[in-house]
Write a structure and sequence with these properties.
With 146 residues, the chain is mainly alpha-helical. The chain contains six helices and no strands. Helices cover 72% and strands 0% of the residues. The radius of gyration is 18 Å and the shape is globular.
């Protein structure tokens, strides 16, 4: 139970941070992405701050085998840049650029009742489901070929 309370407050803090930073305002996000128009650089500072926090967190995490709540700590080990990673990054960026949302802020905005966020979250979940279906089909084909 204590883990769930901790998870709730960490999620709440993350959501509030997104709201304060303006990440839940699609027009602000689209203004940041509009390099040829009226570019709004303010989100670059938000991203820079997030990168600094992430670098510090990963530096601490690399020295640990368990997380702060006592669970197993599994850090990614792959450093490969392949076609799937590039295609996924392009799709993620295109979705962000079209809608002005990325997943975290979209969920916060959905909770705030923004209809555009609901459309984005439904599309995001559909994309995740499609990915899982395609992955399972590929795994079956690979297993069947062996």
């Amino acid at each position: 139970m204590q883990h769930r309370v901790t998870e709730f407050f960490v999620g709440l803090l993350f959501g509030l941070g997104l709201i304060v930073a303006g990440m839940t305002d699609p027009s602000k996000v689209l203004g940041f992405l509009d390099l040829a128009g009226h570019w709004d650089p303010s989100l670059a500072f938000v991203m820079g701050g997030a990168i600094l926090v992430g670098l510090g967190a990963f530096a601490v995490a690399k020295k640990r085998t368990t997380n702060f709540l006592g669970g197993a700590l599994h850090l990614p080990t792959s450093t490969d840049i392949d076609k799937r990673l590039i295609a996924g990054g392009l799709l993620f960026g295109a979705g962000w650029g079209i809608a002005g949302f990325c997943p975290g802020p979209a969920i916060v905005s959905l909770g705030a009742g923004q209809p555009k966020a609901a459309v984005f979250v439904v599309a995001m979940l559909a994309g995740m489901a499609l990915f899982e279906i395609l992955e399972r089909m590929q795994a079956r084909r690979t297993a069947g070929a062996q």
